[in-house]
Design brief:
Elements (H helix, E strand, L loop, with lengths): L1 H25 L4 H9 L3 H15 L21 E5 L7 E2 L12 E4 L34 E5 L7 E2 L12 E4 L9 E2 L2 H7 L2 E4 L1 E4 L2 E11 L4 E5 L4 E6 L7 E2 L4 E6 L4 H12 L4 H13 L4 H10 L6 E4 L4 E6 L6 E2 L4 E6 L3 E9 L11 E6 L6 E13 L4 E9 L10 E8 L4 E6 L11 E7 L2 E6 L1 E6 L2 E6 L6 E5 L1 H17 L7
Antiparallel strand pairs: 1-2, 1-3, 4-5, 4-6, 7-26, 8-29, 9-24, 10-19, 10-23, 11-18, 12-14, 12-17, 13-16, 14-15, 16-18, 19-22, 20-21, 20-23, 21-22, 24-28, 25-26, 27-28
Length: about 500
């Protein structure tokens, strides 16, 4: 009788549960309501009905249901960044979408507590009683100690939280870095804007810009003067600024001191003297700088002209004329100054800090002020002195000037191309921290590990710096936010020196 009553009760309970499900389906209850009903179903009643059925039918009793694991606390705080929904290493500061159009997932402040690594799931045996035991095999990592998430020298042999509720970070055997290495989580890397680029062989070229002036080529200037006292009988139609050709007459000169040597040379010609006598007589005229054209005229006419036609010694422009008809000219007095403008100099004032980048033979571009035309030349000399007032050095660029457009004393802008064209190991300018005893770069070692490293730099150009020592080809260096990382690394090293990791508290 008693067994029959229990069987009847079990059948009633099961029928009630089935009826409730059928009624919910007929009423088209919303999925959310169904989920709520399932979550709050009287599991004890169902379990009791199952026991009654087992007793009535003689089946083995059903084991009690396993209680569900307590749900994790809901995430809180503002959205700090967004991550890829598939767990890939892709992050964004604002809302974003994947390539197939799905939204990135927001990460709240309470979900990104680690400053060094992504949160790790602790094994079941890692409780407050002590650290997890070392595993003898299977490649499992062994926790050496737990360190403060803010980089402070506080360590612990067991898991704990700091005063802000942040979990201490486990440090595994074999993963201890030196005191200067910094670890950052992907979220913090994203928020601080850390970017890195590989170290590679590059050809460094640059440009040094300076102001200068156009000057005459000192090797292409001439002075017309007499080596004897005489008189300027007449000046040809040549004035300052006139362009003259080599051999073109400039003036006619009368020289009493030339009469005796000229008469001696003419006598030797008429007497058909031997070659030695004739050569000595001719040399006396050449010692007075008598032009070869005048000597040729004496040989042709066998007469001594009363005045000599004095020619231009080179092709160029008359930059100065002091000769006047009828004037007395003493020996050595300047009568004309000529300059060849087919080649000119651009002399630029270059800051002394740019001098190591400049070498003789490098190309340069010169553009006169107010002109759109530019001229290409090459550096012919770097003057060996520094102006103590302006701290600049003069650099001379030789320029062809076939049409004479470049005039003396013009202002010009000079651009000097630097670099020898050979590839060198180089990093971006932004990767080098110039401070302290030596320049420093931050090497990205992967997995959020960043290591400051001293380097020896070379020349610069094109936004890159040559590295002569400290990094290798293929290393990655941080190009942004490196000052923050360097400061944190120095603080971490100083704190580690006060309290080594082995001194766990």
């Amino acid at each position: 009788m008693r067994r029959g009553v229990r069987t009847t009760l079990a059948l009633v309970a099961l029928a009630a549960a089935g009826g409730a499900g059928y009624w919910g389906g007929r009423r088209d209850l919303a999925p959310a309501a169904s989920a709520w009903a399932a979550a709050h179903a009287p599991t004890a009643l169902v379990a009791g009905a199952a026991d009654l059925w087992a007793e009535a039918t003689g089946a083995p009793p059903t084991p009690p249901p396993v209680a569900a694991a307590p749900a994790r606390a809901a995430a809180s705080g503002p959205v700090v960044y967004y991550r890829d929904p598939d767990g890939r290493a892709a992050y964004a500061a604002g809302p974003a979408k994947t390539a197939d159009g799905r939204d990135f997932l927001p990460v709240l402040a309470s979900e990104d507590l680690s400053l060094d690594e992504e949160p790790r799931s602790e094994p079941e045996h890692a409780t407050a009683a002590g650290p997890p035991p070392a595993s003898g095999g299977g490649g499992a990592k062994v926790v050496r100690f737990y360190r403060n998430p803010m980089g402070l020298p506080d360590t612990s042999p067991v898991p704990k939280k700091d005063s802000m509720g942040m979990d201490y970070i486990p440090v595994y055997v074999g993963e201890e870095d030196d005191g200067a290495t910094v670890r950052l989580s992907p979220g913090r890397l994203q928020r601080t804007g850390v970017r890195s680029e590989p170290v590679a062989m590059r050809t460094l070229t640059g440009t040094v810009r300076a102001s200068g002036t156009i000057q005459l080529d000192e090797t292409r200037r001439s002075v017309v003067a007499l080596r004897f006292d005489g008189y300027v009988d007449r000046v040809e139609n040549v004035t300052t600024g006139s362009v003259v050709r080599q051999g073109q007459p400039l003036m006619r000169v009368y020289g009493p001191d030339l009469l005796a040597p000229a008469a001696q040379y003419l006598s030797a010609l008429n007497d058909r003297s031997d070659a030695v006598t004739l050569r000595n007589a001719r040399r006396r005229l050449e010692n007075y700088a008598v032009p070869a054209s005048v000597i040729a005229e004496i040989e042709r006419t066998h007469e001594i002209p009363p005045t000599l036609a004095w020619p231009a010694p080179r092709t160029g422009v008359v930059v100065e004329r002091t000769a006047v008809d009828g004037m007395r000219a003493t020996a050595g007095e300047s009568l004309f100054r000529l300059a060849d403008l087919s080649v000119v100099w651009a002399v630029a004032d270059v800051p002394e800090g740019d001098l190591p980048r400049i070498a003789v033979g490098e190309g340069a571009t010169v553009r006169p002020r107010g002109s759109e035309r530019s001229y290409a030349g090459r550096i012919s000399l770097v003057y060996p002195t520094i102006n103590p007032t302006t701290r600049t050095a003069r650099v001379r660029v030789e320029l062809p000037n076939p049409d004479g457009a470049l005039l003396p004393d013009m202002y010009a802008d000079v651009e000097i191309a630097t670099g020898d064209g050979r590839p060198v190991l180089a990093v971006p300018d932004g990767a080098v921290i110039d401070g302290g005893d030596r320049p420093t770069v931050i090497v990205d070692k992967g997995e959020g590990r960043l290591e400051p490293r001293s380097v020896r730099t070379g020349r610069r150009g094109g936004g890159y710096v040559a590295i002569e020592e400290g990094v290798s080809d293929g290393d990655r260096v941080v190009t942004s936010a490196n000052f923050l990382i360097d400061a944190e690394s120095n603080l971490k090293a100083a704190l580690r020196g006060l309290n080594p990791p082995g001194d766990a508290r």
